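Sequence in, structure out.
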Amino acid sequence: MVRPCPVCKSRKWHREPLSALIVCAEGHVLPNYRNETTEVQEPGQHQLSRRAVKRPKRATVELSSADPKLYHGDRARFHYLQCLQLLFRKQLNALIRLWALPHEFEVIARDVWAMHLALLGEDIPAEPLHAAAAPPLGTSLPRAGGGTSTPAGRPPASPSTPTPESDRSSNSELELAQLLSEASATSSSSSGDEQQPPSAGPSAAPPGRKGRRRGTLHKSKAAAPGGNLAVLVCALWVLRVPATYADLIRLVERYELPYLAPLHSLPEEMTLHLTTSTAKALTPRFPPNVMVLHTLASRLARGMAGYGVVLPELNAAPVLWRAVRALNGSPLLYTLSKRLLSTLDIPLTLHPSLTPLLHPPPPDAPSPVTRKHHLENIPASLALLGGVVLCLKLMYGLDGRERVPKDEGDPLRGMPRVGEWLGSLREARERRGRDILKVFPRSVLDMTDAEMDEYLELAPRVLVDPREKVDHPDREFKDQFFPLPPPGPGQPSTQTPASTYPPYSKFTATALSRDPKALQPGSKHVIYSRLDRHGTIPEEYELVLQVAADWARVDLEDVLTTVEVYERRLETTWKERRAAKRRLSRADGDEQDLRHQRSRSVLPDAE
């Protein structure tokens, strides 16, 4: 609160400009107040003053806390593709060694890999030329914001020290690197525009939209370890090798094909520059899925067809025989399945659009004719397997009601009894259920000697880093206290389905029946829909579907869907053939009536 004036009791005070005294509104001076502040309007004659010197502006150096060994941006993308390429070469060598493939397979696989990179649908960053044409240590590089940056670990050079020669050399080297990068980008874009057809070229992204997904280096899903397996599949199809997706997945699960934990297969000089996200993109957590692999392989095959490189069809005969043996079938079942599949007209290519039409269109057709079947873009092995399951279902029924033949010419007469055949499937599935790769809790005390040996053979491949530079302090300890002999060269890595089934000499053929009320093969056929969620599939049919799905490494619903589509297609084919026969018989009857009328008109009238 303001003090009142002791004379007039006023509370309004102000300072006099000349005397610097505190005076109230009536002019009374505030006593006991002293102002010791000296206000000087002009400096004295002998006062010292320091003249300010204008110095040139110094560029502020931003010290980054990032690790200079880790790559980011385009350099990280290029390094990621380098890691994928080295991993692909190791996968290629492993596959040639495991399956004894010819050396031509390596040449074909490299060409397919080049096509795979060209079809990624994005601009592949060029090799970082600034790393090769980098200035010597100690020289500064210009920043985008106009400042300068210095190499990591060195202080910035003093601006007062002129270095015209080093600046001139660094500028010339940077200009040379920039010109080389622009020339390489121009040449690659021009050559790509000349060779790229309009139908197969990647569509340009809109300018206002980002090209890559958030958190990923590449916008294409094929730029992943799964894309390497798709390239291997296409190369195997070129050589007509009867391999399936399940074969590659089995090799991946047993760590015989580098896919899981691929950083163990890369040298330390390359893994040193990987960030956490890049290393995570290179390291899949689970084995690949058959449907995902087929999607990548079919896209690659269709893209290669746009460049005029058409892959051949699958070598279907060995794969069909393997599918028959996976269901404990006989050569008779192989013949019947082959005839049924030819009737269904299934595609045996990686993409249905690459399958030649059964009836080619005329050359003057207004638009290209394509296949119109539903759900055809599936793996060829699954298509063949669906035909085998459908053939078994037509003969046995697999609905709880027995089908019996009534004459010697019935194909079911040469097949085993349904009870014995289903029992062999059930026993083999239970035996394969104890596979060491199955994920379920199991005690070591419950393992057999063969399972224990298989586990001890698999564990080092999964847990131990095979690189030589990595320190293994426990190697001498294991060799000293746990000496284990190496596995024999003749031991198979996986059991074939044929070795898990008993020979056909132990089965009993299906007997003939004279009962007129007995169901024959193909009668009372029931089509089970994939949309049925109430579990009405019979137990026998479910067992066959599960065994087939285990062999093809797909879901049970995939096999059920394939069989359902083939059943409806077969029903449509039968209806069309019956309608064609009726039309033909009706046309023959009309022609006979016309001939009869003509013959009656020619004959003379009887008197």
